[in-house]
Records
---
Amino acid sequence: METVRKWVQVIIGFLTNSSWSFPFTNVIYQGPLKVICAPGLNCYSCPAATTYCPLGSIQQLLGGLRFALENGQYYFGFSVFGTIGILGGLFGRMICGWACPFGFIQELLHKIPTKKFAIPRILSYGKYMFLLVFVIVLPLVLVDEFGSGSPWFCKFVCPAGTLEAGLPMLLLQPNLRNSIGLLFLNKFVIMTIFLIWAVFSSRPFCRTACPLGAFYALFSKVRLIKLHLDEAKCTNCKACHHVCPMGVKFNESPDDPECISCLACMNKACQFDAISLEIGGIPLAVPDKGLSPAGKS
Amino acid sequence: MSQTSHDLRKKRPIRKAPFVVIPIFLILWMIGVATGEPARVLEQAIQVCLSCIGIG
């Protein structure tokens, strides 16, 4: 199942970044597919991006809301919130585990063999602050003399934008290099910190700072597809604690907002079939019977 | 399907919450589409956002 998940991550990463003409054109994709929302964090200024980033669009729409209202345009971001709300209602943070390119990059970095460190649970609340303050409040409230707000998260924090769009665009368009300043340096440092941190800790950005992960986490109890704990079968052996890349103690918190439904606990840890994947209450899959106990880690 | 999942299917009730939440966001999405928001989103997405990538 882990192989399937990896392939899904690769395929979705490719589908959301499938415009490979940029080395010849030096510009980003500008076709009609960009009206489609990327399920995960995927900067739409990435030269290969064929979809729009929900976080970037929300900030742009909210930042331009005053100007839009003055012109009789009611761009509150409903279509974007609606899209990611539908995705959240269906999959929740399963999107993070299966469909986010930046999550996939962090997973690959974490495979580098080094000593690994846990992330304190309290840091997981940071992403809710980023969602509320940097994505919603600041673009709405802090506006320039023309009434336009900035995409605060994209502008000052987002490491995915720096990695997927900032660096490639600097390579493709040399004239942009003259514009590099403290703003880019700040974002470059943040990106570097998260990428190095990802080597030592599992998915640090997803767990501490991703506003999109925070939004999907709000659906942890109500999402259609999620993992289910059969308490009658659970022996509280805590094997699920050791395999979870998000630090979830599944037997203690089966609806944990951090759960990305990577299925590691179901397939790699639980030997008692206490964990299953369900859709709206109906079992969708039971633990992978192909794994022998010896193969479990 | 194994006996395990068969048992689970019999015991577990259908969860109604997703069937309430998803239509709410579907309506929200339709309102956004009706106001012409996707055209604005597309307009923004086909331009390089310099501040988004830390340059502007």
---
Amino acid sequence: MTYLNKPVLHHPKLKANALGLTHRDYEGKVSTLCAGCGHDSISAAIIQACWNLSLEPHRIAKLSGIGCSSKTPDYFLGPAHGFNSVHGRMPSVLTGANLANRELIYLGVSGDGDSASIGLGQFAHSLRRGVNMLYIVENNGVYGLTKGQFSATADRGSASKRGVSNSDSPIDMVSLALQLGATFIARSFSGDKTQLVPLIEAAILHKGAAFIDCISPCIAFNNHPGSTKSFDYVRAHNEAVNTLDVMIGRETITADYAPGTTREIVQHDGSTLRLHKLADDYDPTDRTAAADYLQRRHAKGEVVTGLLYLDPAPRDLHAGLDTVETPLNRLGDAELIPGAKAIERINAALR
Amino acid sequence: MPVKPLERVNDFVVKFANVNGSGSASANRLFAMSILRMGVPVSPRNIFPSNIQGLPTWYEVRVSERGWLGARGGVDMMVAMNPQTWDKDVASIEPGGYLFYDSTKPMPTDKFRDDIVVIGVPLTEICNTRYSDPRQRQLFKNIIYLGALSALLEIEPKAIETLLREQYRSKDKLIAPNIEALHLGRDWALANLECPLGLRVRRADAVGDRIFLEGNSASALGAVYGGATVAAWYPITPSSSLAEAFQSHCRRLRVDPVTKKNRFAIVQAEDELASIGMVIGAGWNGARAFTATSGPGISLMQEFLGLAYFAEIPAVLFDVQRAGPSTGMPTRTQQCDVLACAYASHGDTKHVLLFPEDPRECFEMGAQAFDLADRLQTPVFVLLDLDIGMNERLCKPLAWDDAKRLDRGKVMTREQLEAGVTFGRYLDVDGDGIPFRTYPGTHPSKGSYFTRGTSRDRFARYTEEGPAYVDNMERLLRKHDTAKRLVPRPIERPGPAPTRLGAIFYGSTSPAMEEALEMLAAEGIALDTMRVRGFPFHDDVPAFIARHDRVFVVEQNRDGQLRALLTVECGIDPAKLAPILHYDGTPITARFIAAAIGKALRGWNVTPLRRVAS
């Protein structure tokens, strides 16, 4: 299909959101990834989430590194600027872009090779700086474009398509993000759109460093028995600790829930996250307990998903730098150039 | 063998040999400043180790009423405060020169020379008698030697006192003790030594309205005036003080007067890769951004620099050049990154370089670099070096024309897009190779594009077709050609007599070159010169070479990097360009240049005009 252009025409009865835009207005080019790739489901979830939130597509900046996942920003949000940068360095480019204009929404798309290997340092530092962004790692445990080498998130003992067993310890991006101070941390599965879409919405609304580790099976190189990143394995071992509804402003509660099973958290932007507890003992506002829970479950081979940590009132990089509200890229000559008089004063002090 | 002591007024070199971390820097700077305040030009240079405390450090002050600001070579007076380097320091004094030392502990006679004048001042003893606090003993020792030197060299104590009052304006209880220490040393010298010496400072009027500052600070101020709002950097000597100066300039000049919030963002990144990544991200998004680094940082940034070249993203890099990798020599000066910057990255790349000669040009080019980067949509390198970056240099006052506007280059606006102007991100509409760009978020449905390296057509659509690639590469060459006319023009100066010989030089070599030309002229050797200020080379450069039989290319690196760039980029026969290379980590001197050029000419059997005449 990838050699065909997308048809421009669409069904006249496609549903419009608050901006009068349909799904089609949030789509991008036709994907060139393999049929059935988990990444395409994530692109679809991003489109769905942005449409649900009625975001103006052009007010989003999409940035990526190199790899299959990093190609995807071309396949969603066509009216948005995108930047396919260099391998493992999306976080720094995104950080710089964010410094230049704090008003846009920043979506960083990366993979496990891009973020857990070559770009582990930049992944870490962008989270600890609290860059206001959604950072998604489309995690398949394998290098796809270079044909099937293990990545750093592959579990020890998991097997490659050729039957080789991985002898190195895996990097758990979620545990790292917890330690590094990310203020919104979730894990999801490309095969579970119901869980993923509200997580993306909540992460976009979050005014700080939001990270989603999305297990996204590689249909070509990592979807076989012996892999711990295959559709079958993740379905069998997925332990969702909660599900999420995102409400902007105050919406009427339409369903009744058993007492003690829901919890509402109001984010700084005014949105409300209603969490439906699936695991009684999981508290997503306790950073250390979350880390402990994840490690214990991982040791049992479980893949814990859901909203894993949330600080509803984060301080982002701009707050730390105390920058003006006006985006720096809009400041004019008068605001930037101190002028000839100031130069005279400076000269006088240098004699 | 005793030699007649040197007799020189307003023309000598004093070198201070100190221990790093002993607090000598401030006293040494007062020494240089007080001479400046007497109207006599000085050029000080720090020679320091990669160390915080304990290793040797030197501060060399050249006093020159004639105004020579380059390093001279040789030492007329050594202030030997470091026993570690005593032997070498004493050996470096010119015959007839002076040795100033702390005579509290007797030194064996074989530690001196009989062809120099030895001046012992019991600094430790004076200090220990007056002060009981160990820190005071150390700090005031520096001021005490300054006081003694003021008597020996006839530096006006009033000038030093005024400087002390200015320095401690906000901590005024330090003024009186410092002035007391100054006079402690001065009075001791006047009472016990024959003052003044043969070396003397005499009030003159040779400084004028010139200012005294470091190239790094001036570059940072240039970045402020050039409209930079984002700085991302990683600490590396000798460039760290540039980023730190940007921070302090911004705190004074770039805070919103009403909200008190910052009109700038400075990030100390985790490494140089992240620094340049942030600069590129900010540049892509329409903010003016820069990094400050040195050679190793440039090496690390290579991949990103290629991306910025191909994706056509403005970025400014200040490269304060230093010698070699690792630690140690890197605190010494060189011009050794010319090729690494000119061709930075994989693939076919060529970058824009600027070569400031002094802090004033650091300021001017520092500001101009941002206009060039936006106009050309490409990385621009400002190549300074440790010599001008980290030393205070006397230069013409900074100037700014309030009528000047920042040139943001070709940015298509929402209005233009709305009006239906064709937008092709890589479409050369004006024939200068420079396409239009849009900032992210400009228009709801027009003008967005997907930024990537080379695999795209004129409308930024993905393609791996050969002809589209070639088309793009040729446009990038056209753009590079446009840059020739935009970078600062080279400055030509005719020799004192008609000549077929020329010399090309750049950057911090300037003052030594100027002085060398006078020395050569005195020998009857005339050279036309050209100071190159930018790359790609302006057409004036090959024209200058064509007009001369032989052209010396004077630079501070081993491989003749600018010479190599001239031969490759201007298609010049290498035999025509004679390299004059200085690269031991010390700043190039006039003595070196004049000697090397003289030697080369003798080798070619060129007879100086004066010898013909006489």
